[in-house]
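Need C-alpha cells for this chain, all 141 residues.
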Amino acid sequence: MAVTIDLALYCANARLLAEFWKSALGYVEEIPAARYGTGDESFARFDVPAGDDGALLCDPEGNGPRLSILPVADRGTAADTRLHIDVRVPADGTAADQWERIRAEAARLVRAGGTILATFDDHVLMADPEGNEFRVTVAPV
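Here are the C-alpha cells for all 141 residues:
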C-alpha cells in the first residue's frame, strides 16, 4: 500500500516560519481543502484557535510533503515534539474503508517497532521506537 507523509511544525511564530520555509523550500500557501471551507476551519482540526496565524504550505509541483505550521503555547518540557510526521493512507472508498486502511497501517507500524498511543475518530497517534510521535491518517481529498 502506498503512503505519503505530511509534516507538522509547532512554533511560537507561525507567520515567520511560514515565510522562511516558503523561501527555503520553494513552497506556496495551500488553499484549505473544500471540506474545511476557510483557513480557520482547517486549523480548528489541529486545535488552533480561530484567527491565529497558522500556515499550510505545499510543493507547487505536488512532489514534496505538505507542511502545516501551527502556533502553540509553550508546552513547557524539552521532550515535547515540535515536528511530527503524518503517515497518510489513500483516501478513496468509504469512511469504513479509510478507517480499515488506517488500522492496517498502524498494525504494520507496530510490527515494525512503533507503539499506538491513542486512537481518535480520524487518526491513530503513534510513537516510533524512540518515542517520537506521529499520526496515521488518510490523505487529503
